[in-house]
Amino acid sequence: MHKDESMRRTVYKERESQSRQREAWPTLARLEFRPKAAQTKTCALKMFSNKRLPPRDIVSHEREGLQERLAKRCPKEDLLLLDFWVSPFCMRVKIALAEKGLNYESKEEDLFGGKSELLLKSNPVYQKVPVLLHNGKPLNESAIIVGYIDEKWPSPPLLPACAYGRSQARFWADYIDKKLFDATCTVWRSTGEAVEVAKKDFIEVLKVLEEALGEKKFFGGKTFGFVDIVAIPMASWFYASEKFGNFTVEAECPKLSAWIKRSMQRESVAKALPDPEKVYDFVVMFRKMQGIE
Ligand SMILES: N[C@@H](CCC(=O)N[C@@H](CS)C(=O)NCC(=O)O)C(=O)O
Question: pTM for this structure?
Answer without folding.
Answer: 0.78
